[in-house]
Amino acid sequence: MNKKIMYYPSVSGYPDPYERIAQRWMETQGYITNTSMFYWAFEKSQRGYRDIDILGFNGKETVIVNVTTNLDDKASSAKFSETVKFFELTEEYLKETPQYSWLVERPTKRMIFYFYSYRTQKALDEVFAKCKSKDIELKSFKDAIKDINEYLNNYGLGKTSSPIITLLALLLMEDKREGLKIQDNVKVDFGT
């Protein structure tokens, strides 16, 4: 056990809107989630905090999620080793914290949700390959919104207290009464 990292449970904070969208996507995929879990680790002789944006689990796996608006912030050559280190430290924190160790005693996935990237498609393909080599799955918000829209169209809004899901439902779903299509009146650019 390395005493350079905290090994006790974390109290969750309040996630930002991007994290909320990623969290809701995970929930539509069957994951139970927790957000904004902070833990500390010593780096360069200084204690610093790390933030698990989303921790999700279902009956077969655990997913550690890092959310970013700009993929280039996490995947550039200079910053990619920091991104990998984040996942490694987080896995160590979960493994060594007795209350959480069961979460990483099962298949564990690493995932980055991103809003946009300024890279060309060729450069983006290289980023995807680099992430795949470190078992990091990438998910764009554009694709997540499409999946949430499909979920809402298949299952409806149901009862929810989630303002994010309610807003997405208003923007994306058809109003079944009299054929009014709400999404025809809204143009949303989710970037690439």
Average pLDDT works out at: 82
For the biggest β-sheet, the strand order reads 1-2-3-4-5
| Helix share bin | 25-40%
Q: From the 3D structure, determine the CATH topology of the domain at 17-141.
A: Trna Endonuclease, Chain: A, domain 1
CATH architecture of the domain at 17-141: 3-Layer(aba) Sandwich
Biggest beta sheet summary: 5 strands, mixed
Q: Uncertain runs with pLDDT below 50, 5 residues or more?
A: 177-192
The whole-angstrom Rg is: 18 Å
CATH level-1 class of the domain at 17-141: Alpha Beta
Distance between the termini: 42 Å
**N-to-C SSE string, H for helix and E for strand:** HEEEHHEHEHH
Structural class: alpha/beta
The number of E-state strands comes to 5
Q: What is the beta-strand fraction?
A: 15-25%
Number of helices: 6
Quick one: overall form? globular
Write the layout of secondary structure elements.
Blueprint: H1 17-28, E1 32-43, E2 46-57, E3 62-70, H2 72-75, H3 77-96, E4 108-116, H4 121-133, E5 136-140, H5 141-155, H6 163-172
Helix pairs in contact: 1-5, 5-6
Protein architecture, described:
This protein is an alpha/beta fold and 192 residues long. The protein has a domain at 17-141: Trna Endonuclease, Chain: A, domain 1 (3-Layer(aba) Sandwich). It is built from 6 helices and 5 strands, in the order αβββααβαβαα. The protein has helices spanning 17-28, 72-75, 77-96, 121-133, 141-155, 163-172; strands at residues 32-43, 46-57, 62-70, 108-116, 136-140. The N and C termini lie far apart (42 Å). The model is unreliable at 177-192 (pLDDT under 50).
